[in-house]
Structure formats: C-alpha cells, structure tokens
Amino acid sequence: MRNCRQAEIICTKIQYKEATFLEKLQIRLHLLLCRTCRAFVKKNSRLTALCDKANLKTLGLEEKERLKKKLSGKQQ
Ligand SMILES: [Zn+2]
C-alpha cells in the first residue's frame, strides 16, 4: 500500500474498529515508510494510541536501554 489517501481511510477504519488484521498490518508497513502519515498519526492522539498497540512487538525505550547496558557490560 503506497497510497497515503488509502492509509488515511484505513486509519479511520481502525478508529471505528472496522479494520481487518491485514489492513492493520498494511498501515504499520506504510507508517514505517511514509513520514507524512507518521506526522498525521502523531497529530491524532487516538491514532497514536492505536499505533502504539500495533507496535507492541517492538522494544520500548526502557527495554532498549536495558539491552544496551547488558550488551556493553558483556563486552567490557
Ligand atoms: Zn503515507
């Protein structure tokens, strides 16, 4: 999905819980590639919350820091 308009439509669908799993996946991919839509999502706090949920599998900042410390500790 490379169309921003389509992404916007799916984002709206997600808001109303009408989006399919596939559509959510497509949105995630599109957001990874498209700065414009990321900015759009950032402006919309509801969507940001939804996208946070969609990104549950990615590591949080705290987790990353912890991993970094763990790794650097091993190297020393
Ligand atoms: Zn876009």
Please render the helix and strand layout as text.
Layout: H1 4-15, H2 21-33, H3 35-43, H4 45-54, H5 61-75
The structure holds zinc ion (ZN).
Describe it.
With 76 residues, the protein is mainly α. The protein has one domain. It is built from five helices and no strands. It has helices at 4-15, 21-33, 35-43, 45-54, 61-75. The longest helix has 15 residues, at 61-75. The mean pLDDT is 77. The structure holds zinc ion. Residues 4, 7, 30, 34, 36-37 line the site of zinc ion. Zinc ion binds next to α1 and α3.
The helix tally amounts to: 5
Q: SS-based structural class?
A: mainly alpha
* Structural domains: how many: 1
Rounded radius of gyration (Å) = 16 Å
Mean pLDDT comes to 77
Question: N- to C-terminal separation?
Answer: 45 Å
Bound molecules: zinc ion
Q: Based on CA inertia axes, which overall geometry fits?
A: elongated
Q: How much strand content do the residues show?
A: under 5%
Order of helices and strands: HHHHH
- Number-wise, the strands total 0
pLDDT under 50 segments (min length 5)? none
Helix fraction bin? over 70%
What characterizes the major β-sheet? Answer: none
